[in-house]
Every structure is written in C-alpha cells, then in structure tokens.
Description:
Layout: E1 2-7, H1 14-27, E2 31-36, H2 50-61, E3 68-70, H3 73-77, H4 83-94, E4 99-104, H5 105-108, H6 117-123, E5 125-129, H7 145-154, H8 160-163, E6 170-173, H9 182-191, H10 201-210
Parallel strand pairs: 1-2, 1-4, 2-3, 4-5, 5-6
Helix pairs in contact: 2-10, 4-6
The structure holds adenosine-5'-triphosphate.
Amino acid sequence: MIGIYGGTFDPVHFGHLRAALEVYQGLGLREMRLLPCFQPPHRAPPVADARARLTMLRSAVGTDTAGLVVDNREMRREGVSYMVDTLASLRAELSDEPLCLVLGADAFLQLHHWHRWEEIIAQAHLVVTHRPGWTLAADAPNLDPALARLWRDCHADDLAGLAVVPAGRILQFTITELDISATHIRAMVAKGESPRFLLPDHVWNLIRLQGLYDIKREMDED
Ligand code: ATP
C-alpha cells in the first residue's frame, strides 16, 4: 500500500510531517508520497512559488526519513492540480496496489467541492486524520449530506479492510494533534516573529535565505 499526502506546503511544517510519518508507520505502508500541488483549485494561489515550495519540502524530508518520498508530478504537469488527475496517473503506474489518500478533517469536509470528487474514492482509499479545531462524525452538522452518505457506505472499521482492495474505503486515523498551520506561520514571519519549532530548521533557513513571506529583514540573524 502506498500513501498519498497532497498539500500546498506553503511552507511545509511539523503538522504535515508528523501526520505523514504516523500514517506511514501506523498503516504499514510501502511508502508515503508527499505531493506538492502546482496550483490549488479551491483556494488563493500559494504565496511562495512552486520551486520554493518544492525545495522546502525536499529539504524537510531529506534523504533519511524512512518511507517519506517527495513526488513532484503535479508541479511537472503544471496547470490546475486536480487530485482526480493525479490519482489517475498514479494508478496507471501502480496497477492494483492499494492507494491511501490522506486528508486532514478540514480537507475531507470540503471534498464535495473537489473536481469530479466522486471518482476519487474509486481510485484510492481515504485516510482521514484529525486536525485541531475540526470535528468529524457521520452525523456532524457540518458534514455535507453526500459526504455523510459516502462516510457511512465506505467506512472501514480497521486497516485490514484497506489492504484487500485497491480503493473505495474510508478509514479514520488518529494522529498526534499539532495545532500548526502554514497560514499562521506565514503571518508570524511577516510580523517579525520566529516560527522556529513549528517547522524544520532547514525550512526556516530557506525562508530566511530566500526572503519568503514578507520576512522582516532583522530576523535574518534569528
Ligand atoms: P494553509 O494554512 O496555507 O491553508 P495548511 O497548513 O492547512 O496550509 P496544506 O498544505 O493546505 O496546509 O494542507 C495539506 C494537508 O495537510 C491537508 O490534508 C490538511 O488537512 C493537512 N494538514 C495541514 N496541517 C495539519 C496539521 N497541523 N495537522 C494535521 N493535518 C494537517
């Protein structure tokens, strides 16, 4: 089984990295691929350009984080990064190997707005993780009725159900909750506050080196 962890990674932080590692280990995946999107369809364009986000992600994962791999196919494809297209290209390479698309609760609650969203579950399992501030339950008032139906129909009680079919199941997976967001990190940097210990030092160094996120110059010595 392969894990797919998509995001804008603007910048990558420990909330992403810890979730990716815990799902990789907890599900016994062959590998966990981190896929930075080129152009997100449902939100404002990223602040840092694709090359800077990819460099930060590569430096965060490094070469010694067992199982975590950066896959830059959405950046090579350019244009709007629709997950349904990405999964189709992965599926073409991996034939029937189960694919597990990891989504934070905030992302899952928006799934019905994704391009051709109903086809996504035909290509991959969904592994939905908690994110501080977001509640998830089949009867939650914030869950769209189509998603509530999907949740009920495809819900897997345990991970054994995921290994036997290539796609189509939804697993809720508990991870260490880290209340970190890229939005908050960008705001801190722009205000002249240090985001250290929310993201890898390598990434913070790149932000300073490249002057990303309207960084205050006096922070260069931080
Ligand atoms: P932004 O603040 O710019 O919206 P973000 O921090 O939410 O960024 P994204 O790159 O948009 O990060 O998120 C990609 C994926 O990572 C989503 O599935 C999201 O739910 C998940 N994610 C992001 N931050 C966390 C976190 N702190 N804990 C768990 N999951 C997270």
